[in-house]
Amino acid sequence: MEENIKNRLEKIAKIDIFQVATLADNFVGYPFYLDYRKAHLLTCDDWKYKSGGIPQGCLMLAFYNNPFNTVQSEEAILLRATNPCVIPSDNDLITSKIEFYKEDVDITTTKSKGNALDDFTRFEFSFSGIECSVLGTFYKNESGKIEFGADVENFFSSHYYKVYKITDEHLEFVVNKPDDATPLNSDATFPIGKVRYSSSKSFQSAMAFNGDAKVYVHTNDILGKRTALFGMTRTGKSNTVKKIIEATEKLSQKAPLKLKSTNDSFEEKLKPLTKDDLPKYPVGQIIFDINGEYANKNLQDGTAIFEKYKDKTLRYSILRKEEADFKTMKVNFYQDITTGFEYLLQYLDDEKGDYLTGFKVVSFERPEKDDYSGWRKYNKHKSIYFCCLDKAGFKTNQKIELKISINEEIEDILKKEEAKEILSKVVKTSNATNLEKLNIQEAYYFWSLMWKNKDGEEFKKNKKNNSGKDWLTEEIRSLLIMLFQKKESGQIVSGYSKFKSALELHDGSLKSSFQDDIWEHLRTGGIVIVDLSQGNPKIQRIFSNDICDYIFKRSMNHFTKAEPNNFIQFYFEEAHNLFPKKEDKDLSQIYNRIAKEGAKLNLGLIYATQEVSSISSNILKNTQNWFIAHLNNEDEIRELRKFYDFSDFADSLIHFSAKNDKGFVRMKTYSNPFVVPVQIDLFE
Fold first, then answer.
1. β 38-44/27-34 pair status
2. Could you give the C-alpha distances from 258 to 185, 245, 250, 282, 450, in angstroms and in order?
3. CB count, 10 Å around CB of 487?
């Protein structure tokens, strides 16, 4: 298979595109108007028939043909047929046709009711006009190699040009890296489909004219790039995503190095690809599977990614599943404190209550090693937070030992309250007094005594001795309100009860973070499928955001330390459920950051959804690869017109045959200067 691809790519590189002008049957007409952006062609039925028809989107070449040799021009203008256009004789022809119709003359034949249609009239009736967009120019450089420019440097009088339809191997040359005459590396190139111009295929099949013009995608098109797939349900988006995953896995298997064993120089570490355009390290792939079709076998395509790559795929689910190899995405809130607290904040995002404001700004980021003041503050906050978790029903089978820094006044309160068990945990050193190895129940009892005596003389004395600084800081008071469900005014509040909505995310038996496990698996070139099909939208967003943010931060950390990052590809099905909306301008959201900054971190983004208008403009503007299937309304077409040359396909994207058009897309890749209509190969 790969040998065949290699031979085919070498053959494509040797194609002389200027030979199209020698194919008499490919001649389609003459331009009668030409400028830098469009051309109008005169054609006729006979030329169109011999060339195999001119469907909308058809690629053609206009060759300069000066019989006087006054201008030497080895170049050909690449055109795409977009619409019919008016020719100067149209009004007269329409008038003549109507007169014939009035006389009931059948002008579709040479004779009608004994009256012959004269040859001159039939000849005139066969002519029509085609409007074309100008895509660029093929030309020969100083060394005689063919190059492509995505514009027109100069054009001559239109009557000196002849236009030919591009077919067969010449078409394959044009749609596969036309601006580079060197052969594509077969190891770093994979077939994605073949050229297809229209939904209707009867004329194309009968004439056998486009041949089997295969379309290829290169490593540089996919790895570390932003790729969008738009189209209505059941138009083949998922099949295309699976083809990309399959191709990426093949590339990953060819990576020559492992991340942990590399001894590359600093300069080499900055190069993610080898000189042969292969990924230097195995490529990790993570799929956010909202519908469960990648993690589970389904009736739609009969197979799933995890089945094809079972040996290197980890599957994660929000809920526990019967399959043994499904891992559950839960967090031990007592161990992964920062992540658990962030999850809680997302659940509390829509909750109202002024007492929640102070709680939401508490930080559980671990202080630096020598930040003793920071550690004293952190340990106090942590001990109250753990008590809140315990009260809310967050259980764990792991041993919890808490530490609280106290002083003389706090010790006096404990003595006054005769808290002998707590006093037995006092450990004094030359510069600190701490309560150590408290369990959660002991910590709760300690804080209940502090809350009981919050207005007592001990705290007033402590505040006076510490230049007005209160031992019960605003943050501690906010946490204690949550724990004891009562404001300082005496008003009853929900407090820790609000934590219970996040109980489904907790597993107190976990010893490691699932984010760490995912990261390590991706670093070795593994595939991770996150099955979000059984979670509510809030949970879907929480886990998706958290995993993406974790991978982004770890990748950024390697980048700032000049350590190599392998390519990691993110895949999002039904992306509108997770991504920020079009009107959302918050660039700090993780999906916007991956789109804008991910390239330097070797993070690729592949997302599929039904609507162009549902995606943040910041993500769209950074998208390099586009696969567009059927869109069913003008609003979406209007959005699409803003990008590249998709306006040429605006009309055809509205039309759709459920039987024939699955996988029929208009594709724009990073390396190709223009959009190509493609029938995507079937994932098997």
1. antiparallel
2. 22, 20, 16, 7, 55
3. 15
pTM for the whole thing?
A: 0.84
DSSP-derived 3-state class of residue 408: helix
Query: H or E segment at 133?
Result: strand 127-140
Report in angstroms the alpha-carbon separations of 252 from 172, 260, 284, 461.
26, 16, 8, 67
pLDDT for 324: 72
Q: Which two tokens stand for residue 186?
A: 């077969």
State the virtual CA torsion across 484, 473, 442, 411 in degrees, nearest 10. -130
Q: How much is the pLDDT for 67?
A: 65
- Which residues does residue 30 pair with via DSSP β-bridges, in sequence order? 42
Report pLDDT for 173. Answer: 93
Q: Which residues of the chain have pLDDT under 70?
A: 1-3, 67-73, 106, 109-117, 177-183, 202-211, 261-264, 266, 298-303
Strands (E) located in 196-256: 214-218, 226-230
CA distance 359 to 241: 42
Residue 640's nearest CA partner among 669, 620, 656 is: 620
Alpha carbon 198 to its chain centroid, in Å, reads 27
Query: How would you class 577 by CB atoms within 10 Å of its CB: exposed for 0-12, middle for 13-18, buried for 19 or more?
Result: middle
Report the C-alpha gap between 198 and 201 in whole angstroms. 7
602-612 confidence digits (pLDDT tens): 999 999 999 89
Handedness of CA 385, 387, 392, 398 (dihedral sign): positive
Per the CB < 8 A criterion, the answer to whether 384 and 377 are in contact is no
Contacts for 374 with CB less than 8 Å, ≥ 6 apart? 367, 368
- What is d(CA 354, CA 615) in angstroms, rounded to the nearest whole number? 34
Q: Is 641 in contact with 620 (CB distance < 8 Å)?
A: no
Are the CB atoms for 291 and 573 separated by under 8 Å? yes
Structure tokens that stand for 515 in this block: 């984010």
Q: Which two tokens stand for residue 569?
A: 């590809």
**Residue 534 is encoded by which pair of tokens?**
């059984």
How far CA 171 is from CA of 20, 121, 165, 682, in Å, comes to 10, 35, 9, 22
